[in-house]
Amino acid sequence: MAWLGNLGTADKSTSVLESIFTNVTDAILIIDEQGFVAGANPAAERMTGWSAEELIGKIHFCDICRGMANCVEEASCVDCFAKRLSMPSFEMKLKTKDGNEYAVAASSTRLIDQDVKYLVVILRDMSEQHRMERERIQRMMTNYVIQAQEEERKRVSRDLHDGVGQALYSILVGLKVVNQLQLDDNIRNHLEDVQQMTTRALEEVKSLAVELRPSALDDLGLVPAIRSYNKRYEQTFGIETELEIVGNKRRYAPVVETALYRICQEAMTNSAKYADCDKIMVRLVDSGDMVELYVEDDGRGFDTDQIRIQGTGLGLYGMKERANLLGGTVEIKSAPGEGTVVHVMIPLTDRGEPLHVDPGTYSR
């Protein structure tokens, strides 16, 4: 605090300045005319890693500052801010005692006291803001990928149904017409075989179209889509399913319905692959300001911690990512021999849209 005393201010004013200097969370560095540190507050000690004793009179500011950051270069000393009377806001690279470098927000001003010029530099750690910004951009990119994937699924599903499906159906009708003509038995048998193959191909195309994007999800909503999926699930895997609806029955924003449907689909598929279960209960609970989805099986269960250690939970990661994008959560409850419960919670507005998310970050 000796530097403050040199200003020759009254004792009371000096006391206030010393309190501010000591307690502000931004780092403050006082630089003399030779460029050496003449003063440093506790925040500057924490930010740089050097103590005040190590800094004052011993560390040149250029050993701390690695240049102003700009859009052209990572960091540059061209047109150094130290040459100016003041710069209200800029970004610079800070080098710490342990050799690390990171960007900080800075401002500077030059003071003149008794013909001695001091440069006051105030630094603010932006690493947390940068981290949050990176996470925000990552969420946006993930959301765009998911939305693009869903749009592509929808397009391919429609093309399969309206294009390939209709073409196969026309072929099937033509085969039936030809089969009604007076034909040799061998030819008739061959036509029947072709007709059966065409029928199977048509069913497979319809199944693929529904798996990619069920029309019921867009036309009728989440509950009819899950109910339809459960029927196909029982036919495919031979596992009994039960659907229970609790609370309000309404449509949600398309992004919410898609996320819940895909999470339900992924959870049930995982149960069929790994759980060795006989029954799955799907429960949808709408309490007005929250929609909850439970997918519970009576299978073998697993150790959730071990799954995370092994890094094999890609399906689990996808479910959590979809929910997180909407401000929701996914909780997995399981233990060996006790089955598995996937619990999804998404806060909603009264219009059925996700509550804790910027509407501009998702497609409707």
TrEMBL record:
A GO-annotated cellular component: cytoplasm
Chain ranges of the PAS domain: 13-58
Keywords assigned: 4Fe-4S, ATP-binding, Cytoplasm, Iron, Iron-sulfur, Kinase, Metal-binding, Nucleotide-binding, Phosphoprotein, Transferase, Two-component regulatory system
Modified residues (Phosphohistidine): H161
CDD domains with a match to the protein in the record: HATPase_UhpB-NarQ-NarX-like (cd16917), PAS (cd00130)
Cofactor binding summary note: Binds 1 [4Fe-4S] cluster.
Cross-referenced Pfam families: HATPase_c, HisKA_3, PAS
Catalytic reactions of this protein: ATP + protein L-histidine = ADP + protein N-phospho-L-histidine
Residue stretches making up the Histidine kinase domain: 260-350
E.C. no: 2.7.13.3
Reported modifications of this chain: Autophosphorylated.
TM spans (from-to): none
UniProt main location, coarse: cytoplasm
GO terms of biological process kind: regulation of DNA-templated transcription
Positions contributing to [4Fe-4S] cluster binding: C62, C65, C77, C80
Subcellular location as annotated: Cytoplasm
GO MF entries: 4 iron, 4 sulfur cluster binding; ATP binding; iron ion binding; phosphorelay sensor kinase activity; protein dimerization activity
Gene3D superfamilies per record: 1.20.5.1930, Histidine kinase-like ATPase, C-terminal domain (3.30.565.10), PAS domain (3.30.450.20)
Known cofactor(s): [4Fe-4S] cluster
Role: Member of the two-component regulatory system NreB/NreC involved in the control of dissimilatory nitrate/nitrite reduction in response to oxygen. NreB functions as a direct oxygen sensor histidine kinase which is autophosphorylated, in the absence of oxygen, probably at the conserved histidine residue, and transfers its phosphate group probably to a conserved aspartate residue of NreC. NreB/NreC activates the expression of the nitrate (narGHJI) and nitrite (nir) reductase operons, as well as the putative nitrate transporter gene narT.
NCBIfam families (UniProt xref): sensory_box
Stated name of the protein: Sensor histidine kinase
